[in-house]
TrEMBL record:
InterPro entries: MTMR14, MTMR14_PH-GRAM, Prot-tyrosine_phosphatase-like. CDD domains: PH-GRAM_MTMR14 (cd13213). Signal peptide: none annotated. This is Uncharacterized protein. GO terms for molecular function: phosphatidylinositol-3-phosphate phosphatase activity. Coiled coil: none annotated. PANTHER family: MYOTUBULARIN-RELATED (PTHR13524), MYOTUBULARIN-RELATED PROTEIN 14 (PTHR13524:SF2).
Length: 296
């Protein structure tokens, strides 16, 4: 493929800053970028691609969702072949994860569980483990609102495989109190299919409240304790609202400290004392006096 130059990266960042991306409204520039990404990924990884061309899974995710399977062997700087993690051929988790049809069905059913339908999606493959991105959990108003609109306007059609587990069956009776629980259960099923064991929570509040309603929530305060099977690491970090301060500070992040005394900021840092965190040599108790960029 053609060489990617510095000016190409500059143009991409400029396009990103100026244009709001929606999968169903992707322009020619966005489509070209997507195709180039697919070519780049093919050089290094075996992968599967799940279509999101009309934004039917999430309008905020790319038109093609790339799920990495394993890394191809390649040559390192010394000329030797870099060792590759061999692909696993057995095990239900692995098989389910790389079955595009099943995975797409899980994406479809679980998308109401998280803010703006940004369900957990693998984005980085490191030593055979997937690092996923997602938004925080949706609150009741968004769950009922999005599921109701989806039903009324027939955005998607779901294939029934089990009447008790089918999301659209619950949507048809969305006033049923079980809808909330069903949506959360689909989210957990997706997480387990992706073999997720740890959830990193960056929220600075336990629940985000707007106009007196809980619009988003954190796994760590789920009333039914549904996420107890996962290790939840609370690492409160300022959201995009705070980055106005970063801009006003002439884009200098050093010594720029978030105001942790605000009334809505109630999340507490919680890092497990394990073999990994102990190697970092960080005094987590001092996080409230750290700048948004901290050099170690």
């Amino acid at each position: 493929m053609e060489e990617i130059k510095q000016e190409d990266i500059h143009d991409l960042l400029e396009h990103f800053c100026r244009c709001l991306y929606k999968a169903a409204e992707a322009d020619s520039k966005s489509r070209d970028v997507m195709q180039r990404c697919l070519k780049l990924v093919t050089l290094d990884y075996s992968h599967v691609v799940i279509s999101n061309s009309e934004g039917e899974l999430s309008a905020n995710y790319p038109s093609h969702l790339i799920i990495l399977e394993y890394e191809h062997p390649s040559t390192n700087v010394s000329g030797a072949l870099r060792p590759m993690e061999p692909p696993r051929t057995t095990g239900t988790i692995y098989e389910n994860m790389h079955d595009p049809t099943r995975l797409r069905d899980l994406f479809l059913k679980s998308r109401f569980a998280r803010c703006r339908a940004r369900f957990p999606l693998p984005v980085i493959l490191y030593r055979g483990k997937h690092i996923c991105r997602s938004s925080t959990l949706s609150g009741g108003p968004e769950i009922y609102g999005r599921s109701g609109l989806d039903y009324l306007f027939s955005v998607t059609e779901a294939n029934a495989e089990d009447g008790d587990e089918e999301l659209m069956g619950a949507v048809q009776t969305q006033r049923d109190w079980q809808l909330f629980d069903k949506v959360r259960s689909q989210d957990i099923r997706l997480l387990k299919t992706l073999n997720v064991g740890t959830i990193i929570d960056f929220m600075v509040e336990k629940k985000k409240v707007k106009f007196g309603m809980n619009v988003t929530s954190s796994e760590k305060v789920d009333k039914e304790n549904r996420y107890s099977d996962f290790t939840i690491v609370s690492l409160p970090y300022p959201g995009c609202e705070f980055f106005k301060e970063y801009r006003d500070n002439d884009y200098v992040a050093e010594d720029l400290v978030f105001d942790w005394t605000q009334s809505h900021v109630d999340a507490v840092i919680g890092v497990p004392d394990d073999a990994v965190s102990s190697q970092l040599k960080i005094d987590w108790e001092k996080y409230k006096v750290m700048g948004i960029v901290c050099y170690i």
